């Protein structure tokens, strides 16, 4: 199974900050990496798929980069609605695996 | 508008069974693969099972193999998860999620709001 490791596990930031979350895969997954945002009591929402492609309707302050084993999610200027938990997920092979999550707090 | 609505969750005793349903609307259900993903209380996301659009391909997590069965009825725009031999560690919110492709691409684009399954005596 491919292990996905996110860092940091939690992060405190302020509105307007630039924030970067890292995801590392235990093997080369090329660009098969997706990012999700989840708010308390809500379903996850897809932000980015295939490492760099923004899902329709997602604000352009979100961006993804990386390939092979190292990936990043960047929020260029934090907005109040961005405080949530973020997960990476590899779609390279079955079983599908997720990172443990990064909790972004004010 | 794509909508996925899960139902069938509830409280069940260890060893019991439950069948979850996911009603799809707002898209051509028969053209998309589907997934079940779960989240234990206060924990992260765990993939459970995937099924291709025509049911030709099915994949299951090792943690549920031999106990859970994913299926779909394209005539009813519905996805199912039959859960047998339930254990305490199966307690979670279960989400259905659409794959953007007809084959299982292991990517999702839309998720339902989830249904809670609690396994406890």
Model description:
The complex is a heterodimer of chains A (106) and B (121). In chain A, strands 2, 4, 5, 6, 9, 10 and 11 form a 7-stranded mixed sheet that branches. Chain A starts with a strand and ends with a strand. In chain A, strand 9 and strand 10 form a beta hairpin. The radius of gyration of chain A is 13 Å and the shape is globular. Chain A is built from no helices and 11 strands. In chain A, 35% of the residues are buried. With 106 residues, chain A is mostly beta strands. Chain B has 121 residues and is an all-beta fold. In chain B, 0% of the residues lie in helices and 48% in strands. In chain B, strands 2, 4, 5, 6, 9, 10 and 11 form a 7-stranded mixed sheet that branches. A 4-stranded antiparallel sheet of chain B has the order 1-3-8-7, with no helix packed on it. Chain B starts with a strand and ends with a strand. The model of chain B has no long low-confidence stretch (mean pLDDT 97). Chains A and B meet through strand 4, strand 5, strand 9 and strand 10 of A and strand 5 and strand 10 of B.
Output the radius of gyration of chain B: 13 Å
Shape of chain A: globular
- Greatest interface (CB-CB under 8 A), with counts per chain: A-B, 26 and 23 residues
Number of separate strands of chain B: 11
For this entry, what is the oligomeric state of its chains?
heterodimer
Give a brief rundown of this model:
With 106 residues, chain A is mainly β.
Describe the secondary-structure layout.
The complex is a heterodimer of chains A (106) and B (121).
Chain A: E1 4-7, E2 10-12, E3 19-25, E4 33-38, E5 45-49, E6 53-54, E7 62-67, E8 70-75, E9 85-90, E10 97-98, E11 102-105
Parallel strand pairs in A: 2-11
Antiparallel strand pairs in A: 1-3, 3-8, 4-5, 4-9, 5-6, 7-8, 9-10, 9-11
Chain B: E1 3-7, E2 10-12, E3 18-25, E4 34-39, E5 45-51, E6 58-60, E7 68-73, E8 78-83, E9 92-98, E10 110-111, E11 115-119
Parallel strand pairs in B: 2-11
Antiparallel strand pairs in B: 1-3, 3-8, 4-5, 4-9, 5-6, 7-8, 9-10, 9-11
